[in-house]
Amino acid sequence: MAPSKESSSSTSPLEKFSKWIQLKIYQFEVTLALYMFTPTEKVVFYSILFLISSLTVIAMVLYFPQHVSFIVGRAWFYMHGDVSAEGAVRAALTGSSATAAAVAGKAAEATATVVREL
Cross-referenced Pfam families, in alphabetical order (predicted)? Predict the structure, then answer.
């Protein structure tokens, strides 16, 4: 007997969502032929998939902003020429040399302290 409309319309949104998730998992497993794997093979496959996905997300979070900044800088250079790029390079060099001098000073102080203690 076919289910009546009352029984299909009386399902809760949670049940509908659960059925939808089950359908998506089934489609995923059929598409990649995972339904043929043993449970151990599935664990290994899903572990590798999780590792690759998480490393990709971490790489995007860490390096994508720097990449976008680089691309914007290149676009700025191609549109406006060398004037602002030259100023940016000078600022970066003076800022890095000042930072390097500060770090070198702190390292020298730490070394002197260690030598005195020995």
Answer: SPT_ssu-like (PF11779)
